[in-house]
UniProtKB/TrEMBL annotation:
This is Aspartate--ammonia ligase. GO terms for cellular component: cytosol. PANTHER family: ASPARTATE--AMMONIA LIGASE. The lineage of its organism: Bacteria, Bacillati, Bacillota, Clostridia, Lachnospirales. It is found in: Cytoplasm. It comes from Zhenhengia yiwuensis.
Length: 335
């Protein structure tokens, strides 16, 4: 069990105030995000069939929660890990045009997650996706989109501080951009996580780009599935969290693979058998739109803006008995 404790920590809001504030933050940020990126809300599946190829494989090692369907000849279904691939197919099916996009509530169960202050087996996030052209698949367009998302974050912080003046302002006016390789060159003696902490502490808000490919030291900054983000055009939005004293990831996003990037990354990952799956076949045949998209953690946002030390203070989940007892001992009230 991993648990970061801070003797000086006291929640700014009580349990009931917290529940009210969670709703306010989610409602405000959702509207701000939709406005900044021109997104339309849609409904999305909680589960998919594995043979569709639609489930996100994340780092490639996490096990999906699966079950059989009584009224479908025992067919198997999997709880989604994310909707990275489904969204792209939905944009084609709903006939979204260039610079139009969708967003949806994504709920998942990550059974293999190691539980701590930041990680729960329950994941709730806004998944969003937007149609672009092949010519728009550039680093400049990626950065432009990140700035719009960051603007929604800043607006949300302004709003919640107005509602609860006892909360402090943590975000700078602008977000800093840096590649994973540049970060390695800055801090060659640190681990990837330590490098993230160092740059977040200095800049407060950072977009770390180009995650998934091997760096000059022969290692990857972090794992990424080979068939949704283009590893040269993706990244993580991270803030410095003064309470947890670490870099705090709010969003993973990127320009999605085109046919060339998909072939290259499947080959690197040793996953060429996926080319025969429905999603991958459509992409390789150029039957899906080029897109940019990502996921933004709902509980993570609430945890950050309400200055909570544990994600269980803003979402109801399952925790080890020892963690619950230790939290109660230190005045941390889990929902």
């Amino acid at each position: 069990m991993k648990l970061f404790m801070k003797e000086s920590y006291t929640s700014t809001l009580d349990l009931r105030e917290t529940e009210v504030a969670i709703k306010k933050i989610k409602d405000y940020f959702e509207s701000a995000l939709a406005y900044e990126l021109s997104l339309t809300r849609v409904s999305a599946p909680l589960f998919v069939k594995p043979e569709s190829g639609l489930n996100d494989n994340l780092n490639g090692t996490e096990r999906a929660v699966s079950f059989d369907l009584l009224d479908d000849n025992g067919a198997q279904a999997e709880i989604v890990h994310s909707l990275a691939k489904w969204k792209r197919m939905a944009l084609a099916r709903y006939k979204f045009e260039v610079e139009e996009g969708l967003y949806t509530d994504m709920n998942a169960i990550r059974r293999d997650e190691e539980l701590d202050n930041l990680h729960s087996i329950y994941v709730d996030q806004w998944d969003w996706e937007k149609v672009i052209t092949k010519e728009m698949r550039t680093e400049d367009y990626l950065k432009e989109t990140v700035k719009k998302i960051y603007n929604a974050f800043v607006k949300t912080e302004n709003f919640i501080i107005h509602e609860y003046p006892s909360l402090e302002r943590w975000l700078p006016q602008e977000i800093t951009f840096i590649t994973s390789e540049e970060l390695l060159q800055m801090y060659p003696d640190l681990t990837a996580k330590e490098r993230e902490n160092a740059i977040c502490k200095e800049k407060k808000a950072v977009f770390i780009m180009q995650i998934g490919d091997v760096l000059s030291n022969g290692e990857r900054h972090d794992g990424r599935a080979p068939d949704y983000d283009d590893w040269h055009l993706n990244g993580d939005i991270m803030f410095w969290n003064p309470i947890l004293e670490c870099g705090f990831e709010l969003s993973s996003m990127g320009i999605r693979v085109d046919e060339e990037a998909l072939i290259r990354q499947l080959d690197i990952a040793g996953c060429n058998e996926r080319k025969s799956l429905e999603f991958h076949s459509l992409l390789l045949n150029k039957e899906l739109p080029y897109t940019i998209g990502g996921g933004i953690g709902q509980s993570r946002i609430c945890m950050f803006f309400l200055h909570k030390i544990h994600i269980g203070e803003v979402q109801a989940s399952i925790w080890q008995k020892e963690m619950i007892e230790m939290c109660e001992k230190h005045g941390i009230h889990l929902l």
